[in-house]
Amino acid sequence: MQSLTKHGAFQRRASIQRAGGAPVRGLRASRPCTVSVAAAATVTKLETGAWVVAPQYRSKGVVHFLGGAFAGAAPQVVYSLLLDSIADAGYTAIATPYAVTFRHDDCARAVRQQFLDSVAELRGPAGLPDAAPDGVPVIGLGHSNGALLHLLIGAFFPGAAATNIVISFNNKQVKDAIPVPGLMENLPGAVGGGATDFYPTPAESRAIIGGSYGVSPTLVVRFADDSIDESLEMSALLKSRLGAGVTQITLPGSHITPCGGDVPWPTGPIFTPVDTIAQVVKEQQQADILRLSKQLVGWMDMVSVQQAA
Known about the structure:
The chain is α/β, with parallel strands linked by helices. Helix content is 35%, strand content 17%. Strands 1-2-3-5-4-6-7-8-9 form a 9-stranded mixed sheet, with helices on both faces.
């Protein structure tokens, strides 16, 4: 288990410094390493390969986070500000990385098992028990392809979570999901393997979810400027099964709004117009992420209170 504390999203991607010393190099997953800095959260890479962003006090709930296709391979980087905000609100985020695969069903089962193994590691003798206390709610949170995976998990294992939050749901076939010419031919074997289409197909996934999904309540989040979002269709399908157990909201932003972190923009000795534009874009992106986080945390708090009652 590799641990470090940090005070900002960029901290864990920068050179990690010991208090008053040189950068820590060659960190290994089997060697816990905690950096002594003023911090709001603890970031840990587990033996399972999952990344954990946890508050420095007893967690109110455990969030299983799944990022989108490709972005899901490095969620601790791509979604750093969102994960930080969740931890700052008192919840532990366990982000399970995954490689893009044509077998959505196998991937859903694999990331669920990785999550369960990660919780067990946190609760083990050398773990962080306050990051995953017994009795707190488990919350599924997925973006784009990660939203699809959580819906499939909720169909295969209806009691997997107290609630699911699915953001920017998207479930298209290969030619629509990856429209860049020549990209598929150059993807790693873990993606291809001779397959040419996702399985289950989008229609089959809808049938599985529509017939077996059992996580209530579920929050469906879409963004106003997202041309590839299919949340409205999925929300209607879920409502036909769960009724009032499904809530759908629309927020300002685009499909990539959840992605991003507090990465410094390097400036020279003179603050140029380009620096000004970059700063404005960065501030808008962060404002959108924090607006999203506020909605998510509000939902998590509601579910936590209901479960405790």
